[in-house]
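Predict the 3D structure for this chain.
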Amino acid sequence: MSTTTWRDYLALTKPGVVMLLMVTAVAGMFLATDPPGMVPPHILIPAFVGLSLAMMASAAINQIMDQKIDAIMKRTEQRPLVAGKLSPRAAVAFAVALAMLSMAMLYFLVNPMTAWLTLFGFVGYAFVYTLYLKRATPQNIVIGGVAGAIPPLLGWVAVTNELHPHAWLLVLIIFVWTPPHFWALAIHRADEYAKADIPMLPVTHGIPFTRESVLYYTILLFVCSLLPYLTGMSGLIYLLAAVILGAIFLAHAVRLRFSEDPKLPMKTFGYSITYLFVLFTALLVDHYIPLYPFIV
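Done. Predicted structure below.
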């Protein structure tokens, strides 16, 4: 085994994924302020750290459980456990330490509801999805998406200690976003998933069916993304951003459906990440800079 460095522990936590999820969690915190204002630092700091640690622990457990699969797939063959840069025992100890510290911070420094909901998401992704759903059904991403969609709810509850309907709208958007996001990647990596015996949709139902599914879910996502405006949660700035971002996503999905260009799946996958980041940024901008005072 090669010498272990802090970068190996960082790679174990999937920092890119955690960063995107934390954008939605932080958005949930600030969107929960009514009237719009600053999240109190004594809530913001422990909530940010606690949620980050929980997501890092969940990602680490995912890699620990998926070592055999990761060794088969080109996309994951350089992960620290597969490459022998980190021992399974060290990885487990690290993940457990992150999870315990996270739960303690959220329970005692934020509120118990946030801690219990975070635990639900942690178990749902790290164990239910990774150990069972991923290997059991082509709908693994859809069902398991519930656990991955709750970060904005966690952020909201950290501030308000309540399950507000607007927070659930944010969860819905991410839940519907997840299938077209991940299935685009799965189309590109279909042969690797088949080799690893993972029943992703392109493997079990074929790539043409998956292309159609991406399009249908993208249409559904476009509709769901309008709900914050239609329910009065957000204003015209958000509406404009949602329509433009959704139209671009639809254009990607339509091209993916009707074109055989091998570059399109990864282009769609890449844009889906940009879509979610910019959409939640638009929610925040709209929350703090409403357009109506400037309309005469």
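The CA atoms of residues 182 and 269 lie 7 Å apart.
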